[in-house]
């Protein structure tokens, strides 16, 4: 899914686009805010390119002009934490790297790209959450799912391979204000069966599928909400690992 805004120059068919205008960042981790020029003409014909990133309520996040950072007036909250990539800017990609995302980074950003050909702007709404990949273990017919950090507090659902919901015991521990770890246990899990553990809040869904055998193949899929009632169906990450299990036949 791509989002775009037309450039104001009537002479160019180029557009400023973002691959995701409502990203969800994991607090404490780095986040890319996507912004680039999509042109029917060759990117190297853009000429001199300048970039401006602004955040509503804070002002300048990052500016790039004359092939160099132009950071006079940069909001103090972003000093040393934001950058674009010069080689990418030269061909019209002004995506911003925001390091060590904070809850205060949440909000609306605008990316403006200007060149000798034309210019345009796209808006991006950054949301923040905390989410972690769950670890699954199997022992004595009990399949457990443990995740270290989630915010907002999630719900946990287990399904069997035919999609039926299963009863499980789930406990939460508040590790810091609003941030929870969880431990969920599914009783009477069977060898050679496949189970799904779904951890979900208003922003993030993690679905972990586990097939139990002498080893268990685990895949975790993340999806992210555009709004609280709608999900964007794409993968952030697919993490596959083989866990050695011991059980009594």
From TrEMBL:
GO cellular component: external side of plasma membrane
Gene3D superfamilies, A to Z: Immunoglobulins
PROSITE patterns: IG_LIKE (PS50835)
TM stretches of this protein: 231-248
Domain Ig-like: 14-123, 143-213
GO molecular function annotation: signaling receptor binding
Any Gene Ontology biological process: T cell receptor signaling pathway
Compartment(s): Membrane
Main location (coarse class): membrane
Source organism superkingdom: Eukaryota
PANTHER family assigned to the protein according to its UniProt record, in alphabetical order: BUTYROPHILIN, V-SET DOMAIN-CONTAINING T-CELL ACTIVATION INHIBITOR 1
The name this protein goes by in its record: Ig-like domain-containing protein
Keywords attached to this entry: Disulfide bond, Glycoprotein, Immunoglobulin domain, Membrane, Signal, Transmembrane, Transmembrane helix
InterPro entries found in the cross-reference section: BTN3A2-like_Ig-C (IPR053896), Ig-like_dom (IPR007110), Ig-like_dom_sf (IPR036179), Ig-like_fold (IPR013783), Ig_sub (IPR003599), Ig_V-set (IPR013106), IgSF_BTN/MOG (IPR050504)
SMART domains the UniProt entry points to: IG (SM00409)
């Amino acid at each position: 899914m791509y989002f775009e805004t037309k450039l104001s120059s009537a002479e160019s068919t180029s557009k400023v686009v973002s691959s995701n205008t409502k990203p969800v960042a994991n607090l404490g981790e780095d986040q890319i805010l996507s912004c680039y020029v999509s042109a029917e003409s060759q990117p190297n014909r853009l000429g001199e390119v300048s970039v401006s990133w602004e955040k509503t309520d804070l002002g300048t996040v990052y500016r790039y002009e004359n092939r160099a950072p132009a950071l006079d007036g940069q909001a103090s909250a972003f000093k040393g934490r934001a950058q674009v990539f010069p080689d990418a800017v030269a061909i019209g990609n002004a995506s911003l790297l925001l390091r060590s995302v904070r809850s205060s980074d949440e909000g609306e950003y605008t990316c403006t790209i200007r060149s000798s050909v034309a210019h345009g702007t796209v808006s991006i709404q950054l949301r923040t959450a905390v989410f972690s990949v769950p670890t699954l273990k199997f022992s004595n017919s009990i399949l457990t799912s443990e995740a270290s950090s989630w915010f907002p507090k999630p719900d946990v659902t287990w399904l069997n391979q035919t999609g039926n919901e299963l009863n499980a015991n789930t406990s939460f521990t508040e590790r810091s204000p609003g941030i929870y770890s969880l431990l969920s246990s599914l009783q009477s899990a069977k060898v050679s069966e496949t189970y799904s553990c779904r951890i979900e809040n208003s922003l993030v869904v993690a679905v972990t599928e586990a097939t139990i055998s002498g080893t268990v193949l685990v895949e975790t899929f993340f999806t992210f909400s555009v709004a609280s009632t709608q999900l964007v169906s794409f993968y952030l990450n697919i993490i596959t690992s083989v866990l050695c299990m011991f059980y009594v036949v």
